[in-house]
Amino acid sequence: MFVCRLSENIFMNKIAIFASGSGSNAENIVNYFEGKDAASFPVIISNKKDAYVHERAKRLGIKSVTFSKSEFDSTDMVLDCLKENGIDFIVLAGFLLKVPENILKAYPNKIVNIHPALLPKFGGKGMYGDNVHKAVVEAGETESGITIHYVNENYDEGTIIFQAKCTVDKDDTYEDVAKKVHTLEYMHFPVIIENILSK
Ligand code: GAR
Which of 26, 38, 78, 164 has the smallest number of CB atoms closer than 10 Å to its CB? Predict the structure, then answer.
């Protein structure tokens, strides 16, 4: 019994997912780790009260909470929530705010983000979700993809961990590109998180 509890403490990473929108990546990640010892998900954190991710959290039996932009930027409320939940790793899955300094400092190299394009192209402020796919199609790109990277103080500029590509065909709409990119996200993001946690 004692050995079992000890190994749980050593290997179980407590992950907080930050999400602002639909949360399909959040749900996919939680489902991937279901029944595995590597991770648990005590809390999902959002900056939008009406984001669909809250519905998904309810279905998954995970607590979800909302903090306003000013609570993120100017208070320790989010940090306190992370500490109260024993969080040791953070995953941004469609999270639209910049991660504030106090959280970056408390979680060095413990925060990863997924971006729906091949950084350093199509990154930066305002580049999220469909805005990215529209920009890719408008620029006449022949490929897009995903970038998983560590998070630092600038939007989309942390060290790149992994990229995967898909084609952008001549007649593809931004919705077509979004579909291809989401497929790559669902396939790779949980596996890359698992790899990072195992190091
Ligand atoms: C995902 O495609 C993710 O890569 C993107 O938002 C979408 C969220 O979808 N993130 C960004 O654009 C960050 N700059 P989801 O809510 O269904 O997981």
Answer: 38
